[in-house]
């Protein structure tokens, strides 16, 4: 173990990040379904799990209506549902 300012710093084993990302990726579809459940059933929604350019898992949930962005801007159902799950909501730019 390395020391910095009198504190011991543990090195993570090789493959730790990939294992953590795989575990997170496996849990994301269930979380996406809970977010979908908070959106009124009159709107169709879709979920997608993918990895961003940095290799981190990302959950995308969207209202798939042609005017889905306008519906979300007016009512905020997705954002509210995600916040109720304890998530920080950001517009995803594909990064």
What does this molecule look like?
With about 100 residues, the protein is α+β, with helices and mostly antiparallel strands. Helix content is about 40%, strand content about 20%. It has helices at about 15-35, 70-75, 75-85, and strands at about 1-5, 5-10, 45-50, 55-65. The chain has a two-stranded antiparallel sheet with strand order 1-2. Strands 3-4 form a two-stranded antiparallel ribbon. Strand 1 (about 1-5) and strand 2 form a beta hairpin. Helix 1 (about 15-35) crosses helix 3 (about 75-85). It is elongated. The two termini are about 35 Å apart. The model has no long low-confidence stretch (mean pLDDT about 90).
The helix content is: 40-55%
Subunit arrangement of the protein: single chain
Arithmetic mean of pLDDT: 89
Q: CA-to-CA gap between the ends?
A: 34 Å
Helix and strand content put the structural class at: alpha+beta
Task: Kindly summarize this structure in a few lines.
The protein has 95 residues and is an alpha+beta fold.
Protein traits:
95 residues; 3 helices; alpha+beta; two-stranded antiparallel ribbon; two-stranded antiparallel sheet
Please render the helix and strand layout as text.
Blueprint: E1 2-4, E2 7-9, H1 16-37, E3 45-51, E4 57-63, H2 68-75, H3 77-84
Antiparallel strand pairs: 1-2, 3-4
Helix pairs in contact: 1-3
């Amino acid at each position: 173990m390395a020391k910095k300012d009198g504190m011991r710093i543990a090195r993570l084993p090789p493959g730790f990040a990939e294992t953590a990302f795989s575990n997170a990726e496996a849990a994301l579809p269930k979380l996406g379904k809970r977010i979908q459940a908070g959106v009124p059933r009159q709107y169709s929604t879709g979920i997608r799990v993918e990895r961003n350019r940095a290799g981190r898992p990302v959950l995308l949930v969207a209202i798939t209506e042609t005017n889905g962005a306008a519906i979300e801007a007016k009512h905020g159902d997705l954002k509210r549902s995600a916040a109720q799950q304890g998530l920080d909501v950001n517009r995803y730019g594909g990064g």
